[in-house]
Amino acid sequence: MLTPLLDRAVIPDLKKLIDYWKIHERIAHIRQGSINVLRHLQGQTTNEPSSPLNAAPDITQEPSGATCYEGYENYCINYSQRYSDDALKLIAQYSSSAELLAFVHSLNENEGDSLLEAANDFDETLTDTKTMVDFAVLKTFIDRAYANIKRAKRKTTATPLSLEDVIAAFQTLMNEPEFKNILECFEPCSKSLESIKRIHADSTNKGQSKRKRIFDIMADSSFTFIHESINVSGHVDDRFDVKSQKQSMRYDDLSELRDRARLIEYSNNKIKNETDREIEELHMFVILVDTIETILSILTSLYMAGHPWFETRAFIYRCFYSQTLQQLIRPELLSPLIQDRFVGLLTELFTSKPKRNFQMSIITTSQTGHWRLLNGLRTLQIVYSVHDQEMLGKEELENTIQKLLGNNDAWVTSQISGLGKSTYIRDEILRMNKHYIKFPIGGEMSADILAERLRNQGAQLASSTAALHIDIGTIENAQQLNELLYCLLLFRSFRFGQEAIYVPPDVPIYIELDASPHTSNLQERM
């Protein structure tokens, strides 16, 4: 609209001034970014007249129109016409994202990797994973570019480092596929800088805490190898571990500390006052945990090949050579290796004495189509299956169970608390001149722990003069409780893991349920 009113001679100059004003902030950032990047790499800015740093005006002041015109022409000649737009945007980030880059410069290579790993341990309300990945990519790009610049300058020590050298190194890396979107990393990282700094500070403190724990262990510690039976979704998993009472540590804790020790040992991130002796202790700690790991692996292998098989083999011999019915309940808990060896030994005995009769029952409620044990026994043509519809009805089952229980078992419960259930049981036991043994069960129960607690009653429980009061509270695993009571009341014994217990048939058992909504539901399921 103004073109017809203007002198044609001044129109080109006016357009340049307008173009300059459109990008004057970018020009200012490029100018300051050039100073910052050279200051970091060189220690000071260059003052040579031919340097492009002097081509752009300092717009932090109020330059005249002539100065802006001259500065814009120099910018076009020395910057926009010489370097790519992406390279100039990257240089501008050294001004607009100066705080972010200062933090990047403060980290060494290993701290950048550790920061990415530490992000997984923190709440994503601080920052998301993508931002942490962007930060790691940015850190890698900067480190690699600086390394290339230093490598190139060692070959040309006669000339000082110039902006052209820096941009050339940046441009080369920006052409690589992994860094093609490097400019997109600056904005999210700058916005989340405070969160990134917090994660770094917390992870550093955590790392120092782990370092102290490692040295404490190496200074004074002792570990005990233990064997545990853990019930996982109805399957008993036997495992070996180490335990330290003083440090309250297990193998998983030691393994995590070993990762930290390796990170320190193989990185350049060493505290200035860290001595060679401390580095040696870190190395020895890694060896210690490696040794513990090897021992645990050997113990597990020996256990799988030995202890469970001894007992299973004894069961097979009892079954084959005795004239009594032997029952195997829930064989799905046996490992595939034990199931294979079970079939192998029974096949060997059956082949050597094919005319010998023996009785064995296998009881389970799970699907049997995939069992190695049952499929292997079917090849001997000695398996007869009894399905649900062929078993006793509910009423017949209750009558049969009642006959098995006799008069030595009683169930005491009520819907109202405070009616004296415990007092009633104690009085009944004392009336029979029996020794009263109370056995509470509650919370997250473990069959092995319960068996060990019962066995600790010693000769008192094995005596016919005793009576057992089982007080059932809130139970996490009702299914396992059902199985335990079923075995204990009908067979007077149970074993689900490594611990076994037996209660004589002439020892009365009283079962008490407290009056709570939870136990009401529990009673219905039982």
Note the topology.
Elements: H1 11-22, H2 24-42, H3 65-80, H4 85-96, H5 98-106, H6 109-118, H7 129-155, H8 163-174, H9 186-191, H10 193-219, E1 224-232, E2 235-243, H11 251-265, H12 276-305, H13 307-321, E3 326-329, H14 336-352, E4 360-363, H15 372-378, H16 394-405, E5 409-412, H17 421-431, E6 435-443, H18 447-455, H19 459-462, E7 466-475, H20 478-490, E8 493-495, E9 500-502, E10 509-513, H21 517-525
The multimeric state of the shown protein is single chain
Helix content bin:
55-70%
Strand order of the largest sheet: 5-10-7-6
Average pLDDT across residues?
Answer: 77
How would you describe this protein?
The protein is of the alpha/beta class. It has 21 helices and 10 strands. The chain has helices spanning 11-22, 24-42, 65-80, 85-96, 98-106, 109-118, 129-155, 163-174, 186-191, 193-219, 251-265, 276-305, 307-321, 336-352, 372-378, 394-405, 421-431, 447-455, 459-462, 478-490, 517-525; strands spanning 224-232, 235-243, 326-329, 360-363, 409-412, 435-443, 466-475, 493-495, 500-502, 509-513. The strands form 4 sheets. It has a 4-stranded parallel β-sheet with strand order 5-10-7-6, with helices on both faces. A two-stranded antiparallel sheet has the order 1-2. The chain has a two-stranded parallel ribbon with strand order 3-4.
